[in-house]
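Q: I have 119 residues here and want to know how they pack in 3D. Can you give me a structure?
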Amino acid sequence: MGTMNVTARVSKKIRKGDTVIAIAGNHRGMSGTVLSCLGEKAIVQGLNVRKRHMKGQRNQPGQIVELERPIHISNLKLCDANGNPIKLHVRTNSQGEREFYYNDGQQDVLFRPVKKPTK
């Protein structure tokens, strides 16, 4: 048995600051803002909250801390400004840059460019 080189597939669609809704799991139907993305998992504010019992230190008493735990991106779906789930598509604009868009029923709405703007 040899070791396999497995690289994590990173989603370009879900990124920090996006509003997402959980489509599977115990928190199905709840929405929140993405705090961070870690490979194929994302930490969403208010979703998948777990309690961690912290032992007391010298000057601090012990406490129970609530933390958001990572959720797999396959269980999340992006939301538009109204909180409705959307499906993103990719197209190339007239300048040759790729961008994400979604269809709201009547027309295509620009979501954001595919690449992050460089500073």
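Q: Anything worth noting?
A: The chain is about 0% helix and 40% strand. The mean pLDDT is 87.
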